[in-house]
Amino acid sequence: MNVTPIILAAGMVASSLTFNAVGEDDVEVLFNGKDLTGWSGKKANWSVVDGVIVGTTTDEDPLPYNQFLIWEGGEVEDFVLTAELKLTSNGNNSGIQYRAKLRPDLGEQVVSGYQCDMHPAVWANGMGYEEKGRGIICKRGMKAVITPEGKAKIVGELPMEPEFDTSEWSTYKITAKGNHLVHEVNGVKTIELHDHQKEARALSGVIAFQIHKGAAMKIEIRNIKLKRLPKAELISPDETPIPKGAPDVNPPRKPKAKAKAKAKV
């Protein structure tokens, strides 16, 4: 197994040595259960405790922006990724970045791109989000299509039950095949999305886990597994027709009502 040194800013965890255990099913184990070998992140925020990756933020030393623990295994195209996560927070959230881009221009340990959200709000847990990009692209319970022009439309529904308690261990699963994305939590499909916007979608990129600015939080991660898939053919817009009158994933906000004119004296 070869080791190539990587020089990063002081206070960061880094190594190019990865422990990829490939079994009969070609599943790679991305976390060795001992330390952060093969991952890079700020040492002040990321550690391994009792065989679990722990990412923390504090109210005393808040993050200036969202930051990430980034897997150093390189870019991944089509795959199935699973991980067990547990979130402790006062309303804050986390997520799994995939097909993401490294963004050192925006700060240390920053990425942009697709995210499977881990969120205490039922409608947001397991949703599709684009960090530093298009924002919410598919809420939980939706089947959605993003048109070539970038309009995210709802084309179907998924069950919203059961609710998932983010303070307990849950298994998050991401399946990415071409421009077809599926998220699942504990075996329940939370979104299904076809992304036809060529200039905005990503077909490959890195994997990372988020710590979020704002209220203090703790994300715990274990059993991270990756199965690479053969490169899939892209699905065309003609294969995902949008019903007439399909609602937007993010309806335009209604303008605030004008304040009533003060009564004349």
Word description of this protein:
- Helices cover 0% and strands 42% of the residues.
- β10 (128-131) and β11 (135-138) form a beta hairpin.
- It has one domain (22-239): Exo-inulinase, domain 1 (Jelly Rolls, Sandwich), CATH 2.60.120.560.
- The protein is mostly beta strands.
- The protein has strands at residues 12-13, 27-29, 39-42, 46-49, 52-56, 67-71, 79-89, 94-102, 111-118, 128-131, 135-138, 142-146, 152-157, 170-177, 180-185, 188-195, 206-211, 217-228.
- Strands 2, 4, 5, 7, 12, 13, 14, 15, 16 and 18 form a ten-stranded mixed beta sheet that branches. Strands 1-3-6-17-8-9-10-11 form an eight-stranded antiparallel beta sheet, with no helix packed on it.
Produce the secondary structure layout.
Layout: E1 12-13, E2 27-29, E3 39-42, E4 46-49, E5 52-56, E6 67-71, E7 79-89, E8 94-102, E9 111-118, E10 128-131, E11 135-138, E12 142-146, E13 152-157, E14 170-177, E15 180-185, E16 188-195, E17 206-211, E18 217-228
Parallel strand pairs: 12-16
Antiparallel strand pairs: 1-3, 2-18, 3-6, 4-5, 5-18, 6-17, 7-14, 7-18, 8-9, 8-17, 9-10, 10-11, 12-13, 14-15, 15-16
